[in-house]
Amino acid sequence: MTVNLPPLAPLADKSSVFSDLNPLPRLLMGPGPINADPRVLRAMSSQLLGQFDPQFRLMMKETMALYRRVFETRNAWTFIVDGTARSGIETVMASVIEPGDRVLVCSFGRFGQLKTEIATRAGADLKVINAPWGTVFAPEQIEVAVKAFSPKLVAVCQGDTSTTMLQPLAEIGKICHRHGALLQVDATASIAGAPLKVDDWEIDCVTAGLQKCLAGPSGAAPVTLSDAMARMIYRRRHIEEGVRPTDYVPGKGRMISSNYFDLAMLMDYWSDLALNHHTEATTMLYGARECARIFVQEGHAAAFKRHADGSRAIVAGLLGMGLKVFGDVANKMPNVTGVYVPDGINGDRVRNALLSDFNIEIGTSFGQLHGKIWRIGAMGYNARQDCVLTTLAALETVLAAEGYRFTRGAGVDAAYQCYKESAG
Ligand SMILES: Cc1ncc(COP(=O)(O)O)c(C=O)c1O
């Protein structure tokens, strides 16, 4: 059988490989990534250390302590997985799910689909419930499914960036525990932008990324595990031959099928045993530590208000331009807003003009929403009045140039007014 490989054009100008990196500065106002806080970039330019250097081990402990505060948890097992946010999701699923285990995914967008696919690869006996894109689940809907299916694990997004919806979670952990299931939450897109009370809400595991409201680059996945989940995983501890201590006794549970995503080995590495596993991405840990420090120093309430203010201003601005906001606004994520591309306007041309003429990036969406909505984010370092107003002003100019009819200035004025009211 012929396998057609994907297209791969050669580099047009070979001399450019010797040019210094000097990208045009863009204002990233899409669904993430966003511009990193300069403090994070500075931390990441620190010199490398060996991962067993006492200085570095101390930084690991500090990072664990900081992320306990970010997640509002006392979970001892709160640490960083090296990799983008999906590496956190996959690490948990590979380490918890054994082939044939029942897993319920509550999906309300593309990132529910991602968890479905990762659980499938882990060999789960899977059930998926779907909420129409642009809506979230009522707790009762989840309870009915958990009761009927009796899963070992329930997986759900807090914020699904593809639809901009934020799933209320306060009751879901309790529902899962009432029926003997553990709850895994993907908070990649919402962490540090909206409240997430891991202990109070009885969430067994949360995974995240840095590239949205935490104001960092992607490449590190903060993870927190309840004791119950940590013990379930550690039963499956099988240490790689080359690093086994002399007193090693393999765990009773089935060996985790991935080496890189073996949370039991990662726990050994982060523990005081300090067992070797991967070569640490030390630069990413510097970044993750700084992201948490920035958020904790600002304070949860202040950071959430900053994101909520941005959301209100963007919604007011878009409505002021006569545009229609996508989805159930009452359950919208505070850090990203979906808006319908108006009839007769080419969404990609608008995005391209914003990028080429204003250096501003906004997003489209995926699947059934591709080309139908734009997604405008104001998160992390960019959840600021100046970024929001600049983006709305540029959008007004481009929309007018594309022939969209509306009252010029009405969007920016409405957003400006919103910010004034929030400050007052
Ligand atoms: C909710 C959610 N989950 C998971 C991911 C995947 O993250 P990554 O691309 O960092 O692997 C994203 C990325 O945008 C996301 O928004």
H-E string = EHHEHEHEHEEEHEEEHHHHEHEEHH
- What composes the largest sheet? 7 strands, mixed
Number of helices: 13
Total strands: the figure is 13
N→C terminal distance: 68 Å
Structural class: alpha/beta
Please state how the strands of the largest beta sheet are arranged side by side.
2-10-9-8-5-3-4
**Quaternary assembly:** single chain
Beta-strand content bin: 5-15%
Say which molecules are bound, naming each kind only once: pyridoxal-5'-phosphate
Radius of gyration: 22 Å
What would the principal axes of the Cα set say about the shape?
A: globular
Low-confidence stretches: none
Mean pLDDT: 97
Helix content: 25-40%
What does this structure look like?
The strands form four sheets. A seven-stranded mixed beta sheet has the order 2-10-9-8-5-3-4, with helices on both faces. It is 38% helix and 13% strand. The radius of gyration is 22 Å and the shape is globular. It starts with 26 loop residues before the first strand and ends with a helix. It has 424 residues and is an alpha/beta fold. Pyridoxal-5'-phosphate binds at residues 32, 84-86, 111, 114, 157, 160-161, 186, 188-189, 209, 218.
